[in-house]
């Protein structure tokens, strides 16, 4: 399999790259800074798959056609979005990368004949309604983040996530289209440190919970490796072994989009 990894020098992506390569998949890692190329190529040593580095700035992706050029140069089977402005460049750049460039890559990926999976690394608070499983104090923490701490980031992620959800619904409604997995992985607050390999996955009351970046990468790799994973999948560290947690989410079709206005998303983007 050919994987296009956007945001390849991010901490989650750096953990994810060797996992994907160990499956004998090839990874094309997209980075903006040529100085990061050698570090990423180093991750490929001794792996079953091959890693390539594509020097390209997501700041230049202004349309689906721009995204399509990158897709056409790689012809990936799977696309992973692990990119973001990271607070650099102010609110305008956050909207340009986390929202607009992400949407352009989704548009191009869903329309691509080669792509069959798109995994978005989002965040657990990217939603508009308090879910039934989340207590008031945890939801209050999310609302503080979304309205006061990181309002532009929250807006950008919500827009991208809702667009992805609408695209996935439309894809399912098209009976002539090939199967497509739209996976929205939604980790809590990211922290460094070694993986615990123990998580709460799918839905969790811990709206203000945290998770190691390495655990996010492990879960992303496991979700991509299956043909029965899709939807909104919340993630924090917990007590369930990671393989067991992924199996449960897949088999029970757990989707934390529950409670959100999915029909409204479709009508807004595709009136």
TrEMBL record:
Annotated source species:
Penicillium cinerascens
Q: Which family does it belong to?
A: Belongs to the avfA family.
**Protein name, as recorded:** NAD(P)-binding domain-containing protein
Where the record annotates domain NAD(P)-binding, the positions are: 7-220
Q: Which Pfam families match?
A: NAD_binding_10 (PF13460)
Q: Record's Gene3D superfamilies? A: NAD(P)-binding Rossmann-like Domain
**What top-level branch of life does the organism fall under?**
Eukaryota
């Amino acid at each position: 399999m050919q994987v296009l990894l956007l945001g390849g020098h991010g901490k989650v992506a750096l953990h994810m790259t060797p996992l994907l390569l160990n499956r004998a998949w090839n990874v094309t890692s997209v980075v903006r800074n040529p100085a990061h190329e050698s570090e990423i190529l180093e991750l490929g040593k001794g792996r079953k798959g091959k890693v390539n580095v594509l020097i390209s700035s997501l700041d230049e992706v202004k349309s689906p056609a721009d995204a399509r050029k990158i897709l056409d140069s790689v012809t990936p089977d799977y696309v992973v979005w692990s990119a973001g402005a990271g607070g650099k460049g102010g609110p305008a750049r956050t909207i340009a990368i986390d929202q607009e460039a992400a949407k352009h890559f989704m548009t191009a990926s869903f329309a691509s004949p080669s792509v069959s999976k798109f995994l978005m690394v989002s965040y657990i608070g990217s939603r508009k309604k308090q879910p039934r499983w989340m207590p008031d104090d945890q939801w209050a923490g999310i609302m503080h983040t979304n309205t006061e701490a990181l309002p532009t980031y929250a807006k950008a992620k919500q827009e991208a996530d809702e667009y992805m959800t609408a695209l996935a619904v439309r894809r399912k409604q098209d009976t002539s289209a090939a199967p497509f997995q739209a996976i929205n992985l939604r980790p809590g607050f990211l922290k460094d440190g070694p993986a615990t390999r123990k998580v709460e996955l799918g839905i969790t009351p811990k709206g203000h919970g945290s998770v190691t970046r390495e655990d996010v990468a492990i879960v992303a790799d496991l979700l991509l490796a299956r043909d029965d994973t899709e939807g909104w999948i919340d993630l924090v560290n917990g007590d369930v072994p990671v393989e067991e947690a992924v199996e449960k989410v897949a088999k029970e079709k757990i989707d934390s989009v529950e409670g959100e206005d999915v029909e409204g998303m479709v009508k807004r983007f595709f009136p």
